[in-house]
Design a protein that fits this description.
This is BTB domain-containing protein. Residues 29-89, 242-301 form the BTB domain. It holds the Pfam family BTB. With 454 residues, this protein is mainly alpha-helical. Among the domains are: 22-153, Potassium Channel Kv1.1, Chain A (2-Layer Sandwich), CATH 3.30.710; 204-353, Potassium Channel Kv1.1, Chain A (2-Layer Sandwich), CATH 3.30.710. 48% of the residues lie in helices and 6% in strands. The chain has 21 helices and six strands. The strands form two sheets. It has a three-stranded mixed beta sheet. A three-stranded mixed beta sheet has the order 5-4-6. Helix 6 runs antiparallel to helix 7 (144-152).
């Protein structure tokens, strides 16, 4: 009844080491396992030697099933699935394209590495499934080993593209990362020789994180254009109207509480919340590295055009710590349209301060695979899942991946009502690619706003 053909590896003599079925040697069996009403007479020792799950179940002092003569198993989906698992333990040739998924799933769930290896060997040598079906199976049962084996056998980019489905929403971070690594390998990416990889930690939470509701009725400030004519404005004149003085490394800044509270939740809590600072006339700030950094932050709040490639990182750090979304948007606008930093440097800033919108904008500028390769570091362990997915999708576009009509529907392109061939051509045109990134940009903005509201 075995579906697997008795194929032997060339040059290797395979001895038949099959054990007799459990029910033919009742003296060795000491437990009855029940699966969906069907009983299986088994040996606790044989099961525990092959699966960590049964070792814990039958021989752990904490287990309630140690002394039971009958135990019900809920993990197998059908008796046939568990029967095949037992036969593989006994080295019987029973694996087929129909039952290998269930046996592999149980071997991973029950931590049975020997059984898992036999399933992987069957899928690699004997199975008639194509690579895409095998890869889908690996994702379904969460087998990282099978994913790696399938990808290791792919040597051409078009073969890899055929295996990638249009809808990758079910892929986890590990799967996306594995396929992304393979696309980099096949496209000739090489780690930059002079690349210095920096792991960017999450920005520290501000000291005044509890929000105050004393100004909850305050309307959200509207965006205004940056004023270049008042770039020389200063905050060190004590004669200017002010109601609070901040001291940064010995330098005093005369400011307005309301103006700061409108732009920053940090100052809103500090100056109008239940904190001792709200009654002080002078407050020392330790967050800015230099007085010039704090002055640039104040100027950006007042829509003064002062951002440069030298000070934008410092301002971004302050607005991230002090929860100032409008200031962050103005920094993003500068890095998009006014900065002379390389795409790699701007992308690293976007990673450091979690600027999803800036990531999208930088990627949209890269129109060749060589340019994209320059921003990819050797160590990507600090990349989060959205970043990896974003760069992976861009890499697919630049390596000629042709999305099917399912992908078009996924992006909401119902306006394309021409023939299938015309639709496919429109999907690959630059305007269509710009539409995809505009859509991504809108989602990134929504994500940024949601993160700021948390």
């Amino acid at each position: 009844m075995a579906d697997e053909p008795p194929i032997k590896k060339a040059g290797v003599e395979e001895k038949d080491t099959e054990l007799p079925p459990d029910d033919s040697t009742p003296e060795l069996n000491d437990v009855v396992l029940i699966v969906k009403g069907q009983k299986f007479s088994c040996s606790k020792t044989a099961l525990s030697e092959n699966a960590e799950f049964f070792k814990e179940k039958f021989f752990s002092l904490k287990s309630e099933d140690t002394d039971k003569l009958e135990v019900t198993l809920e993990d197998p989906k059908a008796p046939e699935e568990f029967d095949a698992f037992l036969k593989v333990i006994n080295k019987e040739r029973c694996l087929s394209d129909e039952n290998v998924e269930g046996v592999l799933r149980l071997s991973i769930l029950w931590q049975a590495p020997i059984i898992e290896e036999r399933c992987l060997e069957f899928l690699t040598i004997y199975s008639k499934m194509d690579d895409r079906l095998k890869f889908d199976l690996a994702i379904k049962v969460n087998s990282e080993a099978l994913k790696k084996r399938i990808l290791s056998g792919i040597n051409w980019m078009h073969d890899l593209h055929r295996m990638i489905p249009s809808d990758r929403s079910t892929w986890d971070h590990a799967t996306t990362n594995l396929v992304f690594e393979k696309t980099l390998e096949l496209s000739g990416w090489m780690p930059p020789d002079s690349c210095v990889n920096i792991v960017y930690p999450l920005a520290p939470m501000p000291m005044f994180s509890r929000r105050s509701h004393t100004m909850s009725s305050e309307p959200t400030p509207k965006k205004i254009k940056m004023d270049e004519s008042t770039a020389q404005m200063s905050f060190d004149n004590s004669e200017d109207p002010h109601d609070i003085v901040f001291v940064v490394h010995g330098k005093k800044f005369y400011c307005s509480k309301v103006d700061l509270a409108k732009q920053s939740d940090y100052f809103k809590s500090m100056l109008f919340g239940n904190f001792t600072e709200k009654d002080k006339a002078e407050i020392h700030l330790n967050d800015p590295d230099t007085p010039e950094q704090f002055e640039a932050f104040l100027k950006v709040i007042n829509a003064i055009k002062c951002l440069t490639d030298d000070n934008v990182e410092g301002v971004l750090r302050l607005c991230d710590q002090w929860q100032a979304p409008i200031v962050k948007e103005r920094c993003i606008e500068f890095l998009t349209n006014g900065s002379k930093k390389s795409p790699k440097d701007r992308f690293n800033l976007a990673l450091q301060f979690r600027l999803e919108v800036l990531k999208i904008r930088v990627l949209s500028e890269l129109n060749t695979i060589e340019k994209l390769h320059r921003i990819i570091p050797a160590d990507r362990s600090y990349w989060d899942q959205p970043t990896t997915k974003m760069v992976f999708e861009k890499h697919l576009l630049l390596t000629g991946y042709k999305p099917t009509m399912d992908t078009a529907a996924q992006w909401g392109s119902k306006a394309l009502d021409h023939s299938r061939e015309e639709n496919r051509a429109q999907l690959l045109e630059p305007p269509r690619q710009r539409f995809l990134y505009a859509d991504l940009l809108r989602h990134a903005r929504q994500r940024d706003r949601a993160m700021e509201q948390q």
